[in-house]
Amino acid sequence: MATVYEFPLLPQAQQMSITLGTVEYQVRFGWCDTPDGGWFIDIADIDGNPLVQGLPLTAGENVLQQFDYLGFPGEIRVMTDSSELVEPTYANLGTNGKVLFISP
Questions:
Q1: Structure letter (DSSP) for residue 48
Q2: How far are the Cα atoms of 3, 30, 45, 57 from residue 53, in angstroms, in the given order?
Q3: What is the DSSP letter of 68?
Q4: What number of other Cβ atoms are within 10 A of residue 56's Cβ?
Q5: Across-strand partners of 4?
């Protein structure tokens, strides 16, 4: 049975150290303020060495899928309460806009 963890987020840029599965990472969430704007994530190892940078938080897919070779211990999915296919806006991240880590 999968374990689902919701990142504790606020509608603002932020960073945190977090354990995903059994591995500790540093993650940063930021907003791309362009006409097509959206949230992105940077992931680094615990020492701050970048693993993934500027990865768009796209709803409806495992945003880590293309990085399977890095051995992340699960997947990250993005959604809003209204739809699994709608990305969070700047204002609703952490309320009805969610970023989930799902480990097998």
A1: -
A2: 25, 11, 12, 11
A3: G
A4: 13
A5: 102
Q: State pTM to two decimals.
A: 0.92
Residues whose CB falls within 8 Å of the CB of residue 89, separated by 6 or more in sequence, listed in order: 97
Q: Are 94 and 13 in contact (CB under 8 A)?
A: no
pLDDT tens readout for residues 29-81: 999 988 888 999 999 999 999 999 999 999 999 999 999 999 999 999 999 99
Tokens 């799902």 label which residue? 102
Per DSSP (E only), the strands in the chain are 3-6, 14-20, 23-32, 38-45, 50-56, 75-80, 97-103
| Nearest Cα residue to 67 out of 78, 76, 80 | 76
In angstroms, rounded to a whole number, what is the distance separating the alpha carbons of residues 47 and 53?
Answer: 15
In the DSSP assignment, the letter for residue 83 is: B
Report residue 72 as tokens: 């992340």
pLDDT tens readout for residues 73-95: 999 999 999 899 999 999 999 99
